Amino acid sequence: MLESFLHVILYEPEIPPNTGNIIRLCANTGATLHLIEPLGFAWDDRRLRRAGLDYHEFAQVHRHADWASCRAFLGDAHVFAFSTKGTQFYHDVAYQPGDALLFGPETRGLPAHLLNSLPARQVLRLPMRSGQRSLNLSNACAVAVFEAWRQMDYCGGLHSPRGTGSDGILW
């Protein structure tokens, strides 16, 4: 398995700009991105490139033929699936270096067989207002990645020491 502070897995992503945004997120945080095929777009799609801007060269991206090959590649990594069916909030988990965050396709979410293969405590959800279906994939991914990274004290990131800055804002 590739050493990374965090792995982001997109299971059969469908919308190129979402994947491009997540490539940019991974480049900026140091997370490794895993794409499980089939993808709902061509890898050279211009919309994917435009959303990722020039960040593709700074992100570690791996493509996998299926869930089994991705899981084998990740070895013993703890996988946390994100779903509206989750029973635990994403911020109630203690993330550790090497964990993997799994997100489903934009139009249908993760399949039941995959969710059922994980312990219930590893199927997480983001809070939302009643009556809403879900958050945008790249937004949900960013919320989860930054929470995990925050818990790991932004390892590898450029940040000021905790305290009050010259502007009086607590960091």
In a nutshell, what does this entry contain?
With 171 residues, the protein is of the alpha/beta class. It has helices at residues 16-29, 46-52, 67-74, 112-116, 137-151, and strands spanning 6-11, 32-36, 60-64, 79-82, 88-89, 99-103, 123-125.
Descriptive report:
By secondary structure, the chain is an alpha/beta fold. The chain has a single domain, classed as 3-Layer(aba) Sandwich (Alpha/beta knot). The chain has five helices and seven strands. The chain has helices spanning 16-29, 46-52, 67-74, 112-116, 137-151, and strands at residues 6-11, 32-36, 60-64, 79-82, 88-89, 99-103, 123-125. The chain has a seven-stranded parallel beta sheet with strand order 3-2-1-6-4-7-5, sandwiched between helices. Helix 1 packs parallel to helix 2 and helix 1 runs parallel beside helix 5. The protein is globular, with a radius of gyration of 16 Å. The model is unreliable at 163-171 (pLDDT under 50). Residues 6-145 form the tRNA/rRNA methyltransferase SpoU type domain. This is Putative rRNA methylase. It comes from mine drainage metagenome.
Tell me, rounded to a whole number, the average pLDDT. 88
Helix content: 25-40%
What structural class do helix, strand and pairing data support?
Answer: alpha/beta
Describe the main β-sheet briefly.
7 strands, parallel
With strands numbered from the N-terminus, the spatial order across the biggest sheet is 3-2-1-6-4-7-5
- The total tally of domains equals 1
Low-confidence stretches: 163-171
- The CATH superfamily name is SPOUT methyltransferase, trefoil knot domain
Distance between the ends: 34 Å
CATH class: Alpha Beta
In terms of DSSP E residues, the strand content is 15-25%
- CATH topology annotation: Alpha/beta knot
Label the CATH architecture.
3-Layer(aba) Sandwich
The shape is: globular
Number of strands: 7
Would you list the SSEs in sequence order as H and E?
EHEHEHEEEHEH
Rg (CA only): 16 Å
Count of alpha and pi helical runs: 5
Protein name: Putative rRNA methylase
GO biological process, one term: wobble position uridine ribose methylation
Pfam families: SpoU_methylase
GO molecular function, one term: RNA binding
